[in-house]
Amino acid sequence: MIAMQYTIRLAGDYDLHKVRERVIQRKPLFDGMDGLLHKAYLFNEVQAVYAPFYVWQCDDAARAFLTGSLFRDLVETFGRPRVRLWNVLAYGGNMGAAHAPRIAVKELDTIAAEENLGRLTERENERHRVALETRGLCFHLTGLDPDRWQLMRYSAWCDPSQIQNCDSDAVETFEILQLCQAECAA
């Protein structure tokens, strides 16, 4: 499983309402897409950042997206963004919750060179298990970037007041404009 995100910083004079319109128009193109387990249309209006987040079943599905017409359309509209990838260590949630998630949090932590990766994975799997029991949490994922040696935690929340445990080196929050979710991913 692979997590993927690209970030588009919008120009100061960009009409931010166009992002919301784009999401409404494009979401149906991703519903039921082969290999796509999760796509969150993330937006931070204050920072003028559009940053979709994906979870792919395998690298073939991610590659097909990046080399296909949907990504090409994005490139033609915004230019080609850098794409971050993470190997998924833990993935799950309660996407059938009564309320749809409204807020996403992405946390990044640097992994020290001396860190035992096996122990780190065990700790993060336990942290993931505990996170899934947290009230208001709809989805949680932990990913490893072995290029930058960073750990990434992504969580989707129904209620922003219930967000907790964000003690990472870097934390970003986003509004979830729309969500595509595979039936098997819940």
Structural write-up:
By secondary structure, the chain is an alpha+beta fold. It has one domain (2-185): Alpha-Beta Plaits (2-Layer Sandwich). The chain has four helices and ten strands; from the N terminus they run ββαβββααββαβββ. The chain has helices at residues 17-30, 59-66, 69-78, 117-131; strands at 2-6, 8-9, 36-44, 49-50, 53-56, 83-93, 103-110, 137-145, 150-157, 170-181. The protein has an eight-stranded antiparallel beta barrel. The two termini are 15 Å apart.
Keywords:
single chain, 186 residues, alpha+beta, Alpha-Beta Plaits, eight-stranded antiparallel barrel, 4 helices, 38% strand, globular
User: What portion of the residues fall into strands of 2 or more residues?
Assistant: 35-45%
* Count of helical regions: 4
As for the number of domains, it is 1
Helical proportion?
25-40%
Question: Main β-sheet: number of strands, strand sense, barrel status?
Answer: 8 strands, antiparallel, barrel
What spatial order of strands do you see in the largest sheet? 1-5-3-10-7-9-8-6
From the alpha carbons, calculate the radius of gyration and give it in angstroms.
16 Å
The stretches of 5 or more residues where confidence is low (pLDDT under 50) are: none
Which structural class matches the secondary elements?
Answer: alpha+beta
Chain-averaged pLDDT: 91
How far the N terminus sits from the C terminus, by CA atoms, comes to 15 Å
CATH level 1 class label: Alpha Beta
How many strands in all? 10
SSE sequence, one letter per element? EEHEEEHHEEHEEE
CATH architecture: 2-Layer Sandwich
CATH topology: Alpha-Beta Plaits
